[in-house]
Design a protein that fits this description.
With 337 residues, the protein is α/β, with parallel strands linked by helices. The protein has helices spanning 52-62, 77-89, 139-144, 159-171, 190-201, 211-218, 223-232, 271-284, 289-304, 316-325; strands spanning 20-23, 27-32, 45-50, 67-74, 96-99, 106-109, 119-122, 147-151, 176-179, 206-210, 237-241, 247-250, 255-258. Helix content is 34%, strand content 19%. It is globular, with a radius of gyration of 18 Å.
C-alpha cells in the first residue's frame, strides 16, 4: 500500500491572531419560503445575510476557526443588521467598514429551481464592499493570518480589487485561497473577469471553483484538465467542485475524487460556501486530501438540504453527526461496513 502523502501545508504563521480572513461581498439576503414559486408569484421570505466570502467566514467560525471578514456595509439599518448577525455567528468585525451614503446590498433568492435558485442583486455600482483600501486590513494581520480567503467577485470593481491583489501579493503565495466565485451580473464582461481572475491565480496557493467557473477562468470545464492548468501555474492545491458528481482535488503529488452525499436539495445557494468553510477547517487541521474533500462535501450537502446560507452553516458537532449518519467517521473517511 502506498503511504498517504504529507497533508497540504498552508505554512501557518506564529503567532496566529486569525485562522482565516475572508475578503469580499456582503449583503442582506431574502430567501423565498415557497419552493416552486418564481419572483412573479406571491412569495414570503426569510431574512439572513450572505455573499460568498461572508458565508465562508460564517461557516469557518461555526466550525471553531477564529474567522474575520473584510468587507463594507452601508450606514443604514440593513448594515446594522448585518453587523449584528456577524457578531452572533462569531465572525470578527474588525475589518468591516461602515460607508455613509451607499446602501447595504440586498439580494432576493428564489428556490426555483432548488439546485440553482434564481437570484436578484440590488447593489449600487459603488457598493460598500467595493471600497476597501490596503489599510482596511493592517499589514500585521495580512501577514499573520493562517489563511487569506479571497473571492473572485471582489476583483470586479472598485478599490477593493486593488487592495485584495496587494494583500495576496504580500503573502507571496503562502496560504492564499482564491474562490473563483463567478457572478456574471457583477462583472462588466466575461473577458474582464477572465483577465483579472487569471492575474489572481498567479498570486494564489489554493484555487477553488466549480466547472462553470473553471471554464470562465481557464477555458476548460474538464476537472482534470482544469486542475492541470492550475498546477502548471504554480497553484499548490487545485479543487474543482463537480456538483452531483462530487469534487476533485489535486496537488503536485496527489489527486483524489470524492463522491457527493445525496440529499434532498432545499436551496443550493450556500453549498459551495459551506464546502469552502469546511475545506479551510480541514486544511488548517492538517487533514489528508481525501478526508478534507469528504468533510467539505458533507458540509455542502448538509447546507443544500437547508433553506438559507449563513444561518444554516453547521457547527462541528452537527457536521460530525451528519457525516456519521451518512456513513463517514467524524473526519470524513468512509466507514467500513
Amino acid at each position: 500500500m502506498v503511504p498517504d502523502p504529507k497533508p497540504f501545508d498552508p505554512k501557518p504563521f506564529d503567532p496566529v491572531p486569525f485562522d482565516l480572513i475572508a475578503v469580499g461581498r456582503i449583503s442582506v439576503d431574502l430567501y423565498a419560503r415557497e419552493p416552486h414559486a418564481s419572483f412573479a408569484d406571491e412569495q414570503t421570505f426569510i431574512k439572513s445575510i450572505g455573499g460568498s466570502p461572508t458565508n465562508v467566514a460564517v461557516a469557518a467560525a461555526r466550525l471553531g476557526l477564529r474567522a474575520a471578514l473584510a468587507t463594507g456595509v452601508g450606514d443604514d439599518e440593513l448594515g446594522a443588521y448585518a453587523l449584528r448577525r456577524l457578531a452572533a455567528f462569531g465572525v470578527h468585525e474588525a475589518f468591516v467598514e461602515c460607508v455613509a451614503g451607499v446602501p447595504t446590498p440586498l439580494v432576493l433568492a428564489s428556490r426555483n429551481p432548488p439546485h440553482e435558485p434564481a437570484i436578484l442583486f440590488f447593489r449600487d455600482p459603488a457598493a460598500p464592499d467595493t471600497s476597501l483600501t490596503i489599510g482596511s486590513i493592517p499589514a500585521d494581520h495580512v501577514e499573520s493570518c493562517r489563511l487569506l480567503w479571497t473571492s473572485g467577485s471582489a476583483l470586479a470593481i472598485g478599490s477593493t480589487a486593488d487592495a485584495m491583489r496587494a494583500w495576496m501579493a504580500a503573502r507571496q503565495r503562502r496560504g492564499v485561497a482564491l474562490d473563483l466565485d463567478y457572478r456574471p451580473a457583477l462583472w462588466p464582461s466575461a473577458q474582464d473577469a477572465q483577465e483579472r481572475v487569471r492575474e489572481a491565480i498567479a498570486l494564489s496557493s489554493i484555487v477553488i471553483g466549480n466547472r462553470g467557473e473553471c471554464r470562465m477562468a481557464l477555458g476548460t470545464d474538464d476537472p482534470d484538465a482544469a486542475a492541470d492548468v492550475l498546477l502548471e501555474q504554480g497553484v499548490q492545491l487545485a479543487v474543482v467542485k463537480m456538483g452531483a458528481e462530487g469534487s476533485l482535488a489535486a496537488t503536485a503529488t496527489e489527486r483524489v475524487r470524492v463522491p457527493t452525499i445525496s440529499v434532498e436539495v432545499v436551496c443550493g445557494l450556500g453549498a459551495g460556501d459551506a464546502f469552502g468553510g469546511a475545506l479551510s477547517y480541514a486544511i488548517l487541521h492538517g487533514m489528508g486530501l481525501a478526508d478534507a474533500l469528504a468533510l467539505a462535501n458533507a458540509a455542502g450537502a448538509l447546507v443544500a438540504s437547508r433553506p438559507t446560507c449563513a444561518d444554516d452553516m453547521p457547527s462541528l458537532a452537527e457536521l460530525q453527526a451528519f457525516a456519521r449518519l451518512r456513513g463517514r467517521d467524524p473526519e470524513g473517511r468512509q466507514r467500513d461496513e
